[in-house]
Design goal:
about 35% helix; 5-stranded parallel sheet; about 15% strand; 5 strands; alpha/beta; single chain
Length: about 200
């Protein structure tokens, strides 16, 4: 899938893992790329401007596309035209739960995982359908709600000091049932993918 989400608590090394992976490659199959951090105060609108300016250069003129939806559409067209890489770090800061009170503990409340700024959910939805070789890597403490039912790769980042208990894995059906009982709402195929990514230890 074009969207890869690294999920984990703060300070677990999500950003470091992405940076080290990119730096360890001799070459990358992308024509260009950008890294933006919501943690450093980038709003979603500023992200769009930065991405468009990076990929369009001097051709980008915000006065010609002042609306968010127009800038999203133009960025999607660029992502579809050639393989580009976008890294969005600390994306939870663009979600309602963070903006309201920095509480992202209640993952069952989908209202806390929606885009807090105009266009966030629409952009996330659109990028999952890109087929040009472009990739969007997102680091976040929680999965944005719009991605619950869309095709994306989820990479859980566990604490460095987590103790491996050596417990046997659940069957795939039992893992899916447990995820459902825990309130995860997604199609069976997506639940199967999540269970597999967690080695059937949800």
């Amino acid at each position: 899938p074009p969207v890869i989400v690294l999920l984990g608590m703060g300070g677990q090394g999500k950003s470091t893992l992405v940076a080290q992976t990119i730096k360890s490659r001799d070459s990358l199959p992308f024509a260009a790329g950008i890294w933006v951090s919501a943690e450093r105060g980038f709003t979603f609108s500023e992200f769009l401007d930065c991405a468009l300016e990076t990929f369009m250069g001097l051709r980008f003129n915000k006065t010609e596309m002042p609306r968010i939806d127009t800038r999203i559409r133009n960025l999607i067209l660029l992502l579809q035209a050639r393989p580009l890489l976008i890294v969005i770090d600390a994306a939870e800061r663009w979600l309602t739960g963070w903006v309201k009170d920095r509480q992202l503990d209640d993952l069952h409340d989908m209202g806390l995982r929606q885009g807090a700024e105009e266009g966030v959910d629409e952009f996330l939805k659109e990028i999952t359908a890109i087929e040009s070789g472009s990739h969007i890597i997102i680091t976040s403490r929680v999965l944005p709600e719009v991605l619950d039912t869309l095709d994306c790769a989820i990479v859980p980042i566990l604490p460095k000091d987590s103790i491996e208990h050596g417990l046997p894995a659940l069957s795939q059906e039992a893992a899916i049932e447990l995820l459902t009982n825990l309130g995860v709402i997604a199609p069976v195929e997506k639940l199967r993918e999540v269970a597999k990514s967690l080695a059937n230890h949800p």
